[in-house]
Amino acid sequence: MTPDQIVFLIVALFTLGSGFMVVTSGNLVHAALWLISTLFGVAVTFALLNANFLAVVQVVVYIGAIAILFIFAVMLTRKDIRDQGPQVNKNWWFGALLSVSTFAGLYFLLQGWEGMSKTASAFPSGFDAVAELGNELISPTGYVLPFEVASVLLVAALVGAVYVAFNPRSGK
Amino acid sequence: MGFWNDPLKAAADWLMDIFTGWGMPELATQILVAFLGVLLLIVILMVLDIVLVWVERKVVSRFQSRIGPNRVGPFGLIQPFADIIKLLIKEDITPSGADKVVYNLAPILSMMSVLILWAVVPLAPQILGADTDLNIGALYIVAAGAISTLSIIMAGWSSNNKYSLIGAFREVAVMLSFEIPMLAVLLIPTIFAKSMGIVKIVDAQDTWFVFLAPLAALIFFIAAIAELGRAPFDMGEAESELVAGYNIEYSGMKFGMFYAGELLHAFTFGGFWAILFFGGYRFFGLEQVNPILAVAILLFKAFIGYWLIMWVRYTVLRIRIDHMLSFNWKFLTPMAFVLLMVTALLNALLAETPPWVYVSSMFLSNIALAWGALELARSYSRREREKVEGPKPAVETTHH
C-alpha cells in the first residue's frame, strides 16, 4: 500500500466510525458533535483529493454554520438532551438491507467504470483550481445558470425564514 | 551565505542529510523534518504567548494608570512564569455534572484553532508556515474561526453550568454574525491580489491595501475584535453579568489554555491585519535584505495591531447584545457587502488606468461610502430619537 492509501483508509474509517456514532449515541449533543467529526472527515477526504477549496468550504459552511446551528436548536428546544426510548424501531432490518444493497449496487456499477482503477494525473504546474472553479461558475458556457438558480433558491429560503419569524401584530 | 539567506531551509537540509545518513528512507525523513518544523513553529508561538501575557498585563495597567507586574524580576518580566507555575500546580477540577470528554477537549480545540492559523502565515519571503502557498488562504482564516466557535460552545455546554451556557450562546451569536462582514471584507484583498493565497496577497501590496481600502481595513479590525470576543464585544465573558462566561468552570492549566489561546488569537489577528492590509513582511524593500529582518518586520506590525486591539479593549465599554447584533446586521454587514460590490466594479472599470488613478479612486470611493453610511445611520437614529422624545425644538432652550 502507498502512504496515500494508508492515510485514506484511516480517514475513511474515522469518517465512517463517526457517522456510526451519530446515529447510535443517545445524547443528542454528542450526536451533533460526532456529526461534526464526520463532516471533518469528509473535509479531509476533499483535501486528499486536491480539492482544497471544497475542503475549506466544507469546514466553514458545515462545521462553522450548520452544525453549530444544529447544536443551538437542540439546546434551545429540548428540555432533556437525552433521547428516551430505543435507538431503533422495528423496521431497522429494512433500513440495513436498503443501505447494504445501495452500497453493493454502487460497488458493482463503479466496477464497470474505467476510472475506478486509474490513478489521477498530477496537476500541471501553475494550475489554479480555485480560479478554474470560479471561471466555470460564472461563464455562460459553464455553470452560470445552475449557480444563479441555486442562489435564487437560497434567497427564497431566506425570505421564508423572515416571513415565519415576522410577527404582524407587533410589527417587528 | 546560504544559511543567512534562508536559515530554515538550510537547517532542514542539514537535518535531512543527517537522518538519511543514518539510513532512514527518504519519505520518512521528509515527514520527520516537516514534523520538526511544525513543532519548532508551535514552540516559538507558545514562548511568544508567555511574553504576550506580560505585554498584555503591562499595557493594560498603563491604560488604566497603574504600574502592573513589577515585583518578580526586572519590570516584572518573570511574572508570567510564576503565573504558569501557579496554574500548573492548581487543583484541576472537573465539575461532577460535566461531560468529561467534551469538557476536556474544548480547551485543546480552542488552542488548536489559533495555532492552525499560523499554517498560512508568510513569515518572510522564503519562510512560509505551510510548505506551499495555499490558494485558499483567506478562506482558511474563517475555517479556523469555525473551530474556535465550536470549542466555545463545547466548553459552555459541557460545564453543565447555566452561566457558562448563556455565555457560550452569546459568544457564538457574536462570532457567527461577525463572520459575515469579515468574510465579505476578506474578499477585498482577494480582488486586489487576484488570488486568495496569502503569499500572493502580500506580494501584490506594492501599495498597502489599507490605502486602497481603508474602510475594509476598519471593518476587518472591528470584526476581528468581535471574533476574539474582546471588549466592547465581550458579552460571552461579561464578568459583571455572567461571572466569567463559558470558561467559568475551568481551573488550572485548562483555564490557562483558554486564556493563552485568547491572547495568541488577538496577536494572530493583529498579524493578519498587517498581512492583509499593511503589507505583511514588506517594508520598503527591507524584507529582501534578510529573512530574519522580514520576520521581525511582520512581528512588529503584528504587535502594533495587537496593541490597537488592546487599546480598544481597555477604553471602550461593553455594548448591549441587541445593540451589537443590530449594529452588525443592519450596519456593518450591508456596508461590507456594498463595499465589496463597489470595489469589484471599480476594479473591473479601472483595470487599464495608471496606478495613481486606481489608488486614489479606490481610496475616495471608500471614504465616500463610509461617509454615506454614517450619514444614513445618523438620520435613522435622529428619526428614532424623535419617535421617542418628540421633535427637537428648533432653538436650544437653556435652563437657568
Low-pLDDT segments, ≥5 res of chain A: none
Pairing-aware structural class of the strands and helices of chain B?
A: mainly alpha
β-strand percent of chain B reads: under 5%
The low-confidence parts of chain B are: none
Number of domains of chain B: 2
Beta-strand portion of chain A reads: under 5%
- Look at the structure and give the CATH class of the largest domain in chain A: Mainly Alpha
The major beta sheet of chain A can be summarized as: none
What is the C-alpha radius of gyration of chain B, as a whole number of Å? 24 Å
Total domain count of chain A: 2
User: Do you know the CATH topology of the largest domain in chain A?
Assistant: Four Helix Bundle (Hemerythrin (Met), subunit A)
**Shape, principal axes of CA atoms of chain A:** globular
Helix content of chain A: over 70%
Please give the largest β-sheet of chain B. none
Structural commentary:
The complex is a heterodimer of chains A (172) and B (400). Chain A is an all-alpha fold. In chain A, helix 1 (3-24) packs antiparallel against helix 2 (28-48) and helix 2 packs antiparallel against helix 3. The mean pLDDT of chain A is 83. Chain A is built from 6 helices and no strands. Chain A folds into 2 domains: 1-83, Four Helix Bundle (Hemerythrin (Met), subunit A); 132-172. Chain B has 2 domains: 1-89, no CATH class; 92-385, no CATH class. With 400 residues, chain B is mostly helical. Classes of the chains: A mainly alpha (172), B mainly alpha (400).
Summarize the structure.
Chain A is mainly alpha-helical. Chain A has 6 helices and no strands. In chain A, 70% of the residues lie in helices and 0% in strands.
What is the strand and helix layout of this fold?
The complex is a heterodimer of chains A (172) and B (400).
Chain A lengths: L2 H22 L3 H21 L3 H26 L14 H20 L17 H10 L5 H22 L7
Helix pairs in contact in A: 1-2, 2-3
Chain B lengths: L1 H4 L1 H15 L4 H38 L15 H11 L10 H16 L21 H22 L3 H32 L4 H6 L5 H4 L1 H15 L10 H4 L9 H26 L13 H23 L7 H29 L5 H35 L11
Helix pairs in contact in B: 2-3, 3-12, 4-12, 5-6, 5-12, 6-7, 7-10, 7-14, 10-12, 12-13, 14-15
